[in-house]
Specification:
This protein is an alpha/beta fold and about 260 residues long. The protein has a single domain, classed as Spore Coat Polysaccharide Biosynthesis Protein SpsA, Chain A (Alpha-Beta Complex). It is about 40% helix and about 25% strand. The chain contains 9 helices and 10 strands. Helix 8 packs across helix 9. The N and C termini lie far apart (about 50 Å).
Length: about 260
C-alpha cells in the first residue's frame, strides 16, 4: 500500500452514538488518499466494536485500543505516532466533515505553501441538526493564539513533512490548544478557509462545557507549553484571554441569532 496523503487522527471514548457517522463522513470524502487512525481511550460501551466492524470493511481505517483511560491527548498522540501521511488532520469521534473537506483544504495548503490550516465550522446538536456557524479568521499567529484559540480542532491540518510529527502536551484538557501553540511556534502563522467544512457537535457534559476546569487547564497550557510562571499565566488568563474569549462568544451569539 502506498503512503497516504492524509493521516486522520481520531480519539474516541464512549462514542457509540456518534462514531459511525464520523467514520462515514470520512468514507464520503472526495479525496480518497487517506488513512484514519482511531485510538480508543478505554471505552466501556460498544465504540470499539463499531470501529472494528468498519475497519474490517476498509483497510484504511485502523483501530487502536489503549489499556486504560488516559485522556484524549494520549489517544491522539498514539495515532500520530502511527501516522504515515504527509498531512496530519484531526477529527474528534463525535464530529463530522463535509464531503469535500480534505480535497479543498489540502489544495488550499498546497497552492499557497501553507504548513498549517483550519476552516470555519458549523455547530450541530446530538441529532445532527445544525444550530450555528463559527467563522474563522483568515490568519492566526501565536500572539493571537495566546489571547484566544480560534482554531476549531476538528478543522486543523498540519504538514508533517514541513513541521515533523508534532505531539500534543500530555495534559487532560486544553491539549488541543497546547498543540496549536506548539505548531504556531514552529510555522509562525496558520491560515483559515472561511468556508465551513466541519460539523462540531455540542454535547452536555463535554469537556468544553466545564468552564471552571477549563480555566485551570488553560493556565496549565501557558505554564507547560510557553514556560510561563503561574502568576504570569493567571494574570494573562484573567486580563487578556477572558476578555477576548468573551468577545468571541458574544460575536458568535449575535451572528447566529
Amino acid at each position: 500500500m502506498s503512503q497516504p496523503l492524509v493521516s486522520i487522527v481520531t480519539p474516541t471514548y464512549n462514542s457509540e452514538a456518534f462514531i459511525l457517522r464520523t467514520i462515514q463522513s470520512v468514507l464520503r470524502q472526495s479525496l480518497q488518499d487517506w488513512e484514519m487512525l482511531i485510538t480508543d481511550d478505554g471505552s466501556t460501551d460498544h465504540t470499539v466494536a463499531i470501529i472494528q466492524a468498519q475497519a474490517s470493511l476498509d483497510s484504511r481505517i485502523k483501530c487502536f485500543v489503549l489499556d486504560k483511560n488516559s485522556g484524549a491527548g494520549v489517544a491522539r498522540n498514539h495515532s500520530i505516532t502511527h501516522a504515515s501521511g504527509r498531512y496530519i488532520a484531526f477529527l474528534d469521534g463525535d464530529d463530522m466533515w463535509a464531503p469535500d473537506k480534505l480535497e479543498k483544504q489540502v489544495a488550499f495548503m498546497q497552492q499557497r505553501d501553507y504548513a498549517m490550516s483550519y476552516t470555519s465550522y458549523y455547530t450541530c446538536e446530538v441529532n445532527d441538526e445544525v444550530s450555528g456557524i463559527v467563522i474563522c479568521p483568515r490568519e492566526h499567529s501565536l500572539a493571537d493564539n495566546k489571547r484566544d484559540n480560534k482554531v476549531g480542532f476538528s478543522t486543523l491540518i498540519y504538514d508533517a513533512d514541513r513541521l515533523g510529527k508534532v505531539l500534543m502536551p500530555t495534559i487532560r484538557r486544553c491539549e488541543d490548544w497546547g498543540l496549536n501553540m506548539t505548531l504556531l511556534k514552529l510555522c509562525g502563522n496558520a491560515y483559515g478557509m472561511i468556508e465551513p467544512l466541519t460539523y462540531y457537535r455540542k454535547r452536555e457534559g463535554s469537556l468544553s462545557n466545564d468552564k471552571l476546569s477549563m480555566a485551570k487547564h488553560s493556565i496549565d497550557v501557558y505554564q507547560i507549553v510557553l514556560g510561563w510562571t503561574k502568576l504570569k499565566a493567571i494574570l494573562w488568563f484573567l486580563f487578556m484571554y477572558m476578555p477576548c474569549w468573551s468577545w468571541k462568544k458574544l460575536v458568535v451569539s449575535l451572528y447566529n441569532r
